[in-house]
Amino acid sequence: MFTFIKNAFTTREIRRRILFTLFIFAVFRLGVHIPVPGVDAEALKTISDSGILGLLNTFGGGALKRFSIFAMGVSPYITASIIMQLLQMDLVPKFTEWSKQGEVGRRKLNQVSTYLAIGMGFLQSLGLAFGFNQMSSLGLIKNPSVATYVMIALILTAGTMLLVWLGEQITRNGIGNGVSMIIFAGIVSEVPKDIYGYVQTSILNAGNQLVKNILVLVAMIAVLILAIIMVVLIERAQRRIPIHHSKRASGAKYMAHLPLKINSAGVIPVIFASSFITTPQQIIPLFMDVTKQHWMVREILNIFNLQHYYGAIFYTILLIAFTYFYALIQVNPEKVAENLQKQGGYIPSVRPGNDTENYLTDTLNRLSGVGSLYLVIIAVFPIALSFFVKLPMTISLSGTSLLIVVGVAIETAKQVEGRMLKRRYKGFLYL
């Protein structure tokens, strides 16, 4: 690991990209501490145990607890991306046509996604400000009025789009995985604070429970290490499908494989499912009073609350559905089968064309079954455990956070390694 980092920093281009990414992180952390005008963030302490506050605050690096300009994070953009990808599945013919036009179509879809993200961000910001003001006994907004709510919504929406723009800069000029890296930075920035808070409350002020709490801490560290090892192994695991080519030179030895990851979707299902859970909680307050204990309001909110078993079950369903859905988008068996046929390649004992597409789809679905089970174990098990053992919300979300942090770190390391390899080949060719 240290050798990899050393080699990365010895390459001028990679060093520039890493330093640029760190600069974007610094801008992000600065924005986290800039409060929205007309808001008393201290009022949020009264609802610090709220499920939505814990989830959004973790992904935003503490921005929501301070109700800063980045309080919404990139959640609206992720929600817009989910909607756009669903609409491309032959629901809107124009979007389906654009998705097949290569780079030009991708730009058009990104432009529509941006406009949709702005609309979603404004709507979610209104719901967030209105709902939190209700839950804090009307103490969050100092002078509640239509103009104040609109101003706050505009500021939060602008903050979200600024984060999206910063993520795009990381993708273009940094080390890649822009929006995911913003979420990564938000989670990692909260880790020292969470560790200090746990040590202070459970170790320094433990009293007679000191030995027990130390043993619990050691056990948590051991489980965390095992979980990291499991994530790394699964994210690197592949099913290699042999590929033969009918147009190869006579007598030439040629071997090719089509690698399919066990978890082809990566950490995207976790990010999508988390965003899908938080979005309704931000919009619902616009249409109903969340402070009233009406059974319908309570049941609807419980479905999107990870501290309730309804929410845990719904979160599990979302993880499984997004794993299958995004794996098919990542690999796209139809395009793979078409490209193999054009290149004269085929899978042994499988006919080219539709049979190859069906074979790849079945294989991918079987792998996604294992991948979704792995995501559920890592992300949902700590939440389920919190129903029987009292755990802080940050610890119950550590499975989700761990998947995102380790997954993004692995993908980023691959991109940096790929750039280093490309640089090495360039240097060789220019000699």
What can you see in these coordinates?
With 431 residues, this protein is mainly alpha-helical. It is built from 16 helices and three strands. The protein has helices at 2-10, 12-32, 51-59, 75-87, 93-99, 103-135, 146-173, 178-204, 210-236, 268-283, 295-303, 309-331, 333-342, 354-385, 393-396, 398-429, and strands at 238-245, 256-261, 345-346. Strands 2-1-3 form a three-stranded antiparallel β-sheet, with helices on both faces. Helix 4 (75-87) packs across helix 10 (268-283), helix 6 packs across helix 10 (268-283) and helix 10 (268-283) crosses helix 12. It is globular and about 70 Å long. The protein starts with a helix and ends with a helix. The relative contact order is 0.11. The model is unreliable at 249-253 (pLDDT under 50).
**Helical content, roughly?**
55-70%
Provide the spatial order of strands within the biggest beta sheet: 2-1-3
Number of strands: 3
Order of helices and strands: HHHHHHHHHEEHHHHEHHH
Alpha plus pi helix count = 16
Q: What distance separates the N and C termini?
A: 29 Å
List the uncertain runs.
249-253
Please state the CA-atom Rg, rounded to the nearest Å: 24 Å
Mean pLDDT: 81
What characterizes the major β-sheet?
3 strands, antiparallel
Q: Give the percentage of residues in beta strands.
A: under 5%
Label the structural class.
mainly alpha
